[in-house]
Amino acid sequence: MKLEKAFDNILVVGLGLVGGSILKSLKYYSFGGDVYGLDSDHKIITEAHKLGLIKNQDTKITHELKKTLVIFSIPTLSIDKAIKELKKYSNLIDPLFTDTCSVKSSVLESLKKENPELISNFVLSHPIAGSEKNGLSSSLPNLFEKKLTIICPHEDNRDSDLKKVECFWNELKSLTKRLPPDYHDDIFAKTSHLPHVISFTLMDALFKNLGLKTFLYSGGSLEDYTRIASSDPLMWKDIMMANEKHIIESIEMFKDSLERLLFLIKDKDDKELLSFFSSVKKSRDSLL
Amino acid sequence: MKLEKAFDNILVVGLGLVGGSILKSLKYYSFGGDVYGLDSDHKIITEAHKLGLIKNQDTKITHELKKTLVIFSIPTLSIDKAIKELKKYSNLIDPLFTDTCSVKSSVLESLKKENPELISNFVLSHPIAGSEKNGLSSSLPNLFEKKLTIICPHEDNRDSDLKKVECFWNELKSLTKRLPPDYHDDIFAKTSHLPHVISFTLMDALFKNLGLKTFLYSGGSLEDYTRIASSDPLMWKDIMMANEKHIIESIEMFKDSLERLLFLIKDKDDKELLSFFSSVKKSRDSLL
Known about the structure:
By secondary structure, chain A is an alpha/beta fold. In chain A, 50% of the residues lie in helices and 14% in strands. In chain A, the strands form two sheets. Chain A has a seven-stranded mixed sheet with strand order 2-1-4-6-7-8-9, sandwiched between helices. In chain A, strands 3-5 form a two-stranded parallel sheet.
């Protein structure tokens, strides 16, 4: 499927790192339709227009937009607010919606509660691509290249719509994979949200104890290890709130392993410590 | 100071990643003296000889070695065993000793207990350079380039000996910095041993829960985040045993921050969660 066959227009709501990277990718890969953008910070709209990324120069998109893909690229809990802004500033005829949020069940629940009429036209996506840097100025045309985007089908989706959204991500050179929303939220709690929790708390603990000496002797490796602790606070606050249940489970799961190792260290258990590290190394190496 | 003025010979005990990298660096930077090597695995000695890295082809270094720097590049708790091997296989006249272990107080304690006659000729060093890969075959001639080596002076050291060992590391293009042994062990418990503990336990928890699916959807970032969990198990078992007190303290310090964040998530405290992440980001960004 060519993307232009599926959509005449693309409208990105939220022009931060991910939204901005979508705009730059569409330009880079020469999308033949029209591209629009909205952001709660209206100055960013003007900026994106000046960069030649979007057609509108302010919030006024007064004419009717047909065959439009709307992409919400916003913090997870801002979906209602963003839909309100969208309704206020645009005139969409039969659009298809998607998003880039890191938690999927909460977006679905919010839609069911606040905007049930949109559900059947809403395809949930999550591009596994990002950076600790924020904002349009940090966005990249190749952010999604060779990365994976998870599509989370729900019971009201039409397969044709799922395919259109998959076509969109493929056009940005991203691979796609379908997973159920709750399974997505569970596995990403463990493999993404938990490492962020750990990185944030490690950085918190180190800075409280070592202050300006934190990175003094680490030769770059600790800077690298805590890199994701510089990620967008609002985005991560929302993820914690939206995926609370799975994140708490994943922290408890991690604490179990940490307590086990702490016990072995306190117990000075030479043999079991070696067995612990050997087994972990063996597990990790087996996955590579 | 030219390294050849300080030493006629260099003898590396332990030809793994770090020891092997020392040999390759000495060759790369054309050290003018003679280089020897010993390893508990005698095949490695032959291998290093075949690579043109050391003069001896087996454990037999029968002639007298004068003005020799001996570098113990071994797991932290193997120092006594390595000294025994050294005495068995070499004939050293008035040597100077150093090591590359990650914990310093325990090396000093072990010397005081088992080999007190060596203490005044033993300079403690710790090059902050490594890899999750092991062995001579993974060693690199530029492993120490632009990295930092910590020198931990103790009360029996002569300043002239400290300077000779600093000259050695500088010759391998490493920077040097002096820190007291216990201060070293405390700060590296926090900035190096703790991140390793976290990485090992995260990998343990994830693999136990997700098995072969652990890296399936993470797009490379989790592989990177857990990279150090593939580090040498014996080396890390020894570090845990040797720096037990400081590592336990650092784990408790980390657990405090983790419990705080867990509490905020469970409490659904929107405002405090945002403040937590913002403060951590601000701290980290202020250090860069």
